[in-house]
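User: Hey, my collaborator sent me this sequence without any context and asked if I could get a structure. I don't really work with proteins. Can you help?
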Amino acid sequence: MKKIILSMSVVALIFATSCKKETTTEITPTSTTETTTISTDVTALQTAYDDAVLKLEEAKKSGDAEAEKIAQEAVDNAKSSWETAKSKATEMGTDMKENLDETGAKIEGAANKVNEDAKESVTEAKAAINKAKDNTVEAATKAKADAEAAAAKAKEDAKKGYNNSLEKMKVK
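Assistant: No problem. I've predicted the 3D structure and written it out in structure-token form, which is a compact way to encode the shape of the chain:
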């Protein structure tokens, strides 16, 4: 009886310690990949603007009003294109920074959640081990008490049997 209870408590202890709370957190970063064509485009537009300014100066030196007017329109168009490209590049950089900050915050939040889940799992495992330990101690104590009670009863029964045998011998 004692061995059975002890075996059951060992099995319960092994079962309690082998149970794991497994959690998987899947993080999918949402980031945008931008190519370097923007910086190349900005540089090309700046070069086109500088060339248009040089042609405007040449037209002013030549004194041709028609060429000067066309060159001025080219300078205005090149400048507006260049400014637009610069503002778009700045805007995209800001958006990318915001997306990276947001992704970093999500990763940090997920890491904190995993950490909290791990702490919770460890706490639960400790509680299960302590409960199994308490159950084992309780079962062992009960088995000992039962064994002592059975031994005492057997001793008493043996005494009664001995006394009965003595009385029967005396009576005869």
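In plain terms: The mean pLDDT is 80. You can pass these tokens on to your collaborator as they are.
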